[in-house]
Design brief:
Length: about 190
């Protein structure tokens, strides 16, 4: 009997200790943090956003990077492209961020001029599930050259191109589509 009584008291004590109390405690309330306005730098869908997103894909935005194939700088220019703009000193190019920015803008202008008819014909269409935009076309031209982008667009996506690292025209069309690059003026003779 004494054993039974002790077990009952222990059982009731356990029940009481683990039962839910209907009273509210401090732990029952949820306190939300104050709404703090953080200044997080988001890229806009404009030319600056376009060039910075492309630069991040190419080199993580680093001006002095040279990849394993010899492409140079923030935008990973080939030496042939640099020669087209009269830039012949690779080391000086790598150490000059302003020159790299001017070269990128000049290349965009030239590519826009080369692809002007294809931009007119293709923007708004969907090829292989990708909505074609002007910024996507310019990014793809930066990757593969304007001629390869023409082949891709004119073949409705049947003629494809990938670089040595596996990046494709399709990837660049999709990843860099939707930026407003209308302020880039097509210019066959653009220079830095």
């Amino acid at each position: 009997m004494k054993k039974y009584f002790v077990l009952c008291i222990l059982f009731l004590g356990f029940i009481n200790a683990t039962s839910i109390d209907n009273k509210t405690s401090v732990l029952d309330k949820v306190y939300l943090p104050k709404n703090i306005d953080y200044n997080i730098p988001y890229l806009q869908k404009d030319f600056v956003g376009f060039k910075e997103a492309l630069a991040f894909k190419e080199s993580q935005g680093k001006y002095t990077v040279v990849n394993t194939l010899g492409y140079l700088g923030k935008y990973q220019f080939g030496k042939t492209t640099l020669h087209r703009f009269g830039i012949n000193n690779s080391q000086a190019f790598l150490q000059n961020p302003e020159l790299q920015e001017r070269a990128f803008l000049a290349l965009c202008k030239v590519n826009k001029w080369i692809l002007r008819k294809d931009i007119r014909r293709s923007v708004g269409k969907t090829i292989n599930g990708i909505k074609i935009t002007e910024s996507g076309i310019l990014a793809a031209a930066h990757l593969s050259g304007a001629g390869n982008v023409k082949k891709f667009l004119r073949s409705n996506g049947d003629i494809r191109f990938s670089d040595a690292y596996g990046a494709s025209i399709q990837l660049y069309l999709k990843k860099f589509g939707g930026y407003n690059v209308s302020n880039i003026i097509a210019n066959r003779k653009a220079n830095v």
